[in-house]
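Homework help board

Subject: predicted structure for assignment chain

Our instructor gave us this sequence and asked us to write out the predicted structure in token form, then describe one feature. I got the tokens but I'm not sure how to describe them. Can anyone check?
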Amino acid sequence: MLIRIKLILTTLFIGFVIVGNKIIASDVPPYSAIILRFSIATILLLFLLAKRKELKQLLKPSHTQWIAFVVLAFSGVVGYNLFMLIGVKTVPAIRASILYALFPMLTWIAAWFIFKERLTLKAMFGSLCCLAGVVLALGQGFQDVTSNLSLNIGDIFILLSLLCWVSYALISKWLLSNFDPLLVTTITCLVACVLLAPFAVVEDFFIVLTTLNTTAWIVIVIQGIFSTFLTFLWYCEGMESLGAGKAALFLNLMPVATILLAAVLLGEHLCIVQISGILLACTGVVLAGQNKEV
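My token output:
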């Protein structure tokens, strides 16, 4: 039950990534924004690893595993967040959430094909209920997308971000067979900061630090603690416990979380139809989460 609660909270924190990035996209360069929140998360993860007296575990991975960690950081951190930040500059938060709703389905298909993970009929039915709730909650925003299926440049960047996160889920699943979630998350964030550093310097990172306003700092700190530190750690725990496919099912709630946060933080309208869709989506996740077979 605890792992399911963590995964549900993870969807809320991921939803804040989209909304938060929408808030700061015009004020903070993309690489600087990403490295700031991942630096916060890395410091917290290293502290937690030191508290458990497991810092030496950082030297445990083999050369092949280090290559996997580099690919993991490049896809799940650099690619996912960079493409998202670029995409949300021209794509409304709700439209972006519609595209990200494809993630659970793509991850489940990939996990079934690569890791032979499977779901019971109850879990599949729950997933369909959740998707139906998402469609209902998105309302006119969903109609706007389906009535005009042409993709603009922002949509393409959001889809690239989505594919990067699917890659992250699959590579993490493989690494979790050898390492615990805390170590996987710590090394991933650490490597990501190293990869991001040169790009942030090109953006005049240290000058950016002196020009950030209070709102930007608040968003970045919240993203660093909740949307990065806890999200990456809890999602790895979820994949280790439930499998990549089933853990991904909980992310059907991510569009719902985005809608709620957009209503609260961006002033977007929330009507009774959307509330009904949110309740249906939550019911679907509960049904999917009762599946004992992965």
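Reply (TA_rk): Your tokens look well-formed. For the description, you could write something like this. The chain has one domain: 2-289. That's the kind of observation they're looking for.
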